[in-house]
Amino acid sequence: MDTEMDTAELGEKIVKVLKGIYDPEIPVDIYELGLIYDVMVNTDNEVKILMTLTSPNCPVAESLPREVEEKITKIDGVKSTEVEITFDPPWSKDLMSEEAKLELGML
Fold first, then answer.
1. I need a surface site. Which of 54, 64, 74, 103 has the fewest CB within 10 A?
2. Stated pTM of the model
3. Whole-number average pLDDT of the chain
4. What is the DSSP letter of 22?
5. What pLDDT was estimated at residue 4?
6. Which tens digits make up the pLDDT trace of 2-46?
């Protein structure tokens, strides 16, 4: 019996964890906010997350990526996690999900 998880299943678990991490200034999770640009999982279950912040001067610029890395690394089956911050393209409200916009009264 194969107990190895496939990368798609692991990807879903990662998204679930990301949806539990909130920007401290906005009552919406970082996934729905559109701060997560990409989640890559290779066959060795090494995870790389490409994310941004709402602004380069974001007060959680240090702590948020570290929180993401720590919580993803704790997922059963994840071998390692690397979080890369990018501002290309810069974050904008257009990246937010409909759910996030609704939550913030923007729809």
1. 74
2. 0.90
3. 92
4. B
5. 57
6. 445 688 899 999 999 999 999 888 889 999 999 999 999 999 999
The letter for the amino acid at 46 is: E
* Euclidean distance between CA atoms 63 and 52, whole angstroms: 13
Number of helices followed by number of strands (H, E) in the chain: 3, 3
Q: How far apart are CA 29 and CA 70, in angstroms?
A: 16
The string of pLDDT tens digits covering residues 63-98 is 999 999 999 999 999 999 999 999 999 999 999 999
Per DSSP, the three-state class of 52 is coil
- How does DSSP assign 35-50, residue by residue? -EEEEEE-TT-EEEEE
Sequential DSSP letters for 66-97 = HHHHHHHHTSTT--EEEEEE--SSPP-GGGS-
Contact present, 88 and 13 (Cβ < 8 Å): no
At the topology level of CATH, where does 7-97 sit? GMP Synthetase; Chain A, domain 3 (3.30.300)
Q: Tokens 């257009």 identify what position?
A: 94
